[in-house]
Amino acid sequence: xxxxxLWLLLYINLEPLALLxxxxxxxxxxxxxxxxxxxxxxxxxxxxxxxxxxxxxxGVVHTYVSPEKTRAILSGRRTGAGNILAASLGIVTxxxxxxxxxxxxGFLQAGVPLGVTFSFLISAPMIxxxxxxxxxxxxxxxxxxxxxxxxxxxxxxxxxxxxKLGMERYLEEWVQQLQNSAVSADFDGETISWPRRxxxxxxxxxEIVGKVWFYIVLGVGLGAGxxxxxxxxxxxxLMGKGAWWSVPAAVLIGVPMYSNAAGILPVVQAQLGKGAxxxxxxxxxxxVIALSAPEMIILRKVLKPQLIALFAGVxxxxxxxxxxxxxxxx
Length: 330
Known about the structure:
The chain has helices at 2-12, 14-25, 32-61, 67-75, 81-91, 97-109, 114-126, 129-139, 141-164, 173-180, 194-229, 232-237, 246-254, 261-273, 278-290, 293-299, 305-329. The chain has 330 residues and is mostly helical.
């Protein structure tokens, strides 16, 4: 109980703590260095706290339900049902791409099929309620609803494609063992005591967080540097209306960046004010929050390069399709 209260206290006070720590450095948040440092100070503990909580909960759940049962629940229906459920769940989980990675690991730990986990990984940062609310406020319900529909389409189709290709062999070995591990006979939901269940959760935290924390720090650090120093005007100048290549160019520009929907939408609005096309800037936004280079760095700890390349390629094609559709409709 005390640990849960401490976790909650830290999580809800991350912003004031980040500002306090930034103040000690004497660097103004208005500068590029200040923006980058604040971003780093805020995001690293946030992602690590989320990772710790999700892995602990999944460790406890692991004592009740075997990976085989979980997999059967999500894939027992016709192909794609699990992907639809996972993508829909992503709408109500307002995480940036790097924050969704802990849930991705947790799903694999519970035995959820790989393609279904990817549907969630794409959907969670890209079409959460924060993005939809801001899009509705800025552009109206028709833009928000079309964005949601296209985002779900990308997440579901990409997850189905990856699942059909049977890419589990391209998970890192320690993740394959985690995904396929069987629950011991003691974990039947009846004989195991609560202290032992909680200890199982703590064991999972030590094993998993201990393996991935460095990659999280590295990924967020890269994102922080780009967040503080990439000029807006340079990006906006490449997204003018009428150029067919602007959509793929916007995706390529967005991939190295890292932000959440709330952080990137003001940039999108500024780009539109400078003459950029709606579909182009939305493709840029989707690539920033669903296909970022820092996310790829974090995923490298759990996925082999072949699977990362497939994931990035399928999602990039889907995002470009969204951009072209929006430019055609609006």
